[in-house]
Specification:
With about 140 residues, this protein is an alpha+beta fold. The protein is about 55% helix and about 20% strand. The chain has three helices and five strands, in the order H-H-H-E-E-E-E-E. GO terms for molecular function: nucleic acid binding.
Length: about 140
């Protein structure tokens, strides 16, 4: 029975991966192609309901607006990261006090700046710890 359960789980994982992959690749052009194809092959005796058509057009418009907002947010995020990195470069050679990632208060002269998955980090001379730019408490 364990073999059946694990096979079922593997099949579900594969289905989820395929569904996720398909939903990520369909865009507004694909939606429009499907919509126009459905109009082309619709049954003349039961044409598409006007309300349904308007609903589909509203969905297309909403999808396009969400895509545009996602692009704008990505650009803003990138600009914020670049701005933080540029600000951090100005700290090189200055004495600071801040809180490291492990929670200890450390101070020293900024030796270098690093971009990590946790954000912009300041490396202090003779210190093993990094101080996140947002955790700087004092600049001398």
């Amino acid at each position: 029975m364990d073999g059946i359960t694990s096979l079922s789980g593997a099949t579900q994982d594969t289905n989820n991966a395929v569904t996720s992959s398909v939903s990520k690749t369909l865009g507004k052009d694909d939606f429009m192609k499907l919509f126009l194809t459905s109009l082309q092959y619709q049954d003349p005796s039961s044409p598409l309901d006007t309300n349904e058509m308007m609903s589909q057009m509203a969905q297309l418009s909403l999808m396009e607006q969400v895509a545009n907002m996602t692009t704008a947010v990505d650009k803003l995020s990138e600009q914020a990261q670049n701005s933080a990195l540029q600000s951090a470069v100005n700290f090189i050679g200055k004495d600071i006090k801040g809180v490291s990632l492990n929670g200890e208060v450390i101070s020293g002269q900024v030796e270098s700046v690093q971009q990590t998955t946790n954000g912009v980090m300041l490396k202090l001379k003779e210190q093993d710890s990094l101080v996140p730019l947002t955790y700087v408490t004092e600049i001398n």
